């Protein structure tokens, strides 16, 4: 199968599954009672899934060798992203704003990148 | 929803860049953003496709990453119950992380569910249009953005803005900590399967912590 037809297959199936998830309790299970334990598990889906998505994105240094491991260079390359993520988390906690989080995170990333570049 | 729109500009651009980098045509890139309408799923789909993962794995990973929509749907269901089925179906399509965060606040403040629904539909549709525009901009013009800007970092920042308010609850912190540690510890798994495993561990840990804390208070 060509990559174009695989992409369209993915678009159709993921699109349908995403829409089914979004519609699930609004339409299909609207009249059903949600078991208490399931409702409780639902509460932790965003915290767990969003963190599982975020952590590898922060830890992934673009253009780095994947097998570099925890060398000194890898830690230096990681420092701007980790600093940016920590500052962004603190700002997001206080302001709840996407825009302020973005500005604080990118600003910290660029600042630490400049410091690391100046030091080496 | 205007600040949410502006905050999503770099995210949409990164999604468009990712689709272009994976060799998708512009209309498939547009189909992906218009139909799937979820940045996390779009990025995972193009990354896994470029890495040669089978369609079944891509579909499963995107579904698990989208499990949070089930939770949003359950939270929105009582608010949308007074509306006709057609309106519910339309609003469900526009249910995103940002729309959900804005809508819950709006429905809680407004007494009138119809007025809140009109506001949600307007904002959600604007967000959808805006998402297509930023994705296409990233697809066509993304290569002009210097790599030194590290624009890809805007994507985790958008999710950090969404997840931070969850950390008011100690059990949610447990869920996030377990998921975060597990996703790194299991990074050796092929085809991003660590995402599914870590998400599941995190949800279980949060639920167990919740049951343990209610048992403590009941005693």
Please state the structural category of chain B.
mainly alpha
> What can be said about the biggest beta sheet of chain A?
none
Beta content of chain A comes to under 5%
Determine the most extensive contact between two protein chains.
Answer: A-B, 68 and 97 residues
Low-confidence stretches of chain B: none
Total number of helical segments of chain B? Answer: 12
| Amino- and carboxy-terminal Cα gap of chain B | 44 Å
Please state the average pLDDT score of chain A. Answer: 87
Average pLDDT level of chain B: 91
String of helices and strands of chain B: HHHHHHHHHHHH
**What ranges of chain A have pLDDT less than 50 throughout 5 or more consecutive residues?**
none
What oligomeric state do these chains adopt?
A: heterodimer
Helix content of chain B: over 70%
How is the biggest beta sheet of chain B arranged?
Answer: none
Radius of gyration of chain A from CA coordinates: 20 Å
Number of strand segments of chain B: 0
Beta-strand residue percentage of chain B: under 5%
Order of H and E elements of chain A: HHHHH
């Amino acid at each position: 199968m060509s990559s174009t037809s695989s992409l369209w297959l993915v678009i159709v199936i993921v699109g349908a599954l995403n829409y089914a998830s979004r519609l699930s309790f609004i339409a299909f299970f609207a009249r059903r009672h949600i078991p208490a334990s399931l409702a409780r598990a639902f509460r932790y889906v965003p915290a767990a899934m969003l963190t599982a998505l975020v952590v590898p994105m922060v830890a992934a240094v673009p253009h780095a060798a994947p097998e570099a491991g925890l060398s000194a260079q890898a830690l230096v390359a990681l420092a701007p992203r980790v600093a940016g993520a920590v500052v962004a988390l603190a700002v997001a906690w206080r302001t709840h704003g996407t825009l302020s989080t973005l500005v604080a995170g990118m600003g910290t990333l660029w600042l630490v990148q400049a410091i690391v570049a100046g030091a080496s | 929803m205007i600040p949410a729109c502006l905050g999503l500009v770099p995210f949409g651009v990164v999604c468009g860049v990712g689709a272009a980098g994976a060799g998708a045509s512009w209309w498939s890139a547009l189909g992906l953003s218009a139909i799937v309408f979820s940045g996390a799923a779009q990025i995972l789909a193009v990354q896994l496709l470029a890495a040669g993962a089978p369609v079944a794995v891509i579909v499963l990973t995107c579904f698990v990453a989208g499990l949070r929509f089930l939770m949003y749907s359950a939270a929105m269901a009582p608010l949308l119950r007074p509306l006709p089925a057609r309106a519910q179906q339309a609003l469900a399509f526009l249910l995103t992380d940002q729309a959900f965060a804005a809508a819950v606040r709006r429905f809680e403040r407004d007494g009138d569910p119809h007025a809140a629904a009109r506001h949600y539909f307007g904002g959600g549709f604007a967000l959808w249009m805006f998402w297509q525009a930023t994705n296409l901009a990233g697809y066509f013009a993304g290569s002009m953005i210097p790599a030194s800007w590290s624009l890809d970092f805007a994507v985790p920042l958008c999710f950090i803005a969404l997840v931070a308010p969850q950390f008011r609850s100690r059990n949610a912190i447990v869920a996030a900590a377990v998921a975060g540690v597990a996703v790194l510890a299991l990074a050796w798994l092929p085809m991003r399967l660590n995402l599914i495993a870590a998400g599941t561990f995190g949800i279980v840990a949060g639920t167990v912590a919740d049951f343990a804390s209610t048992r403590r208070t009941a005693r």
